[in-house]
Protein: YnfU family zinc-binding protein
Amino acid sequence: MSVINYAMKFFSSASTATAACPVCGLKSVQPLSKVRLNQTMLCPGCKALFISRR
Ligand SMILES: [Zn+2]
Structure:
């Protein structure tokens, strides 16, 4: 079922969330899976690693 594979790939790449860096306050777009799984995200501004809490 290549259509389903394509759809899942599309949705996984399109699922993003905006996270604010706790160090410099810069908002950046991060993969939604990282936000949901509490994985560390890299701030593009100050290069700090942080975990989004909400
Ligand atoms: Zn930052």
Summary: The first strand starts at residue 16 and ends at 20. The radius of gyration is 13 Å. The beta strands are 16-20, 27-31, 41-42, 49-50.
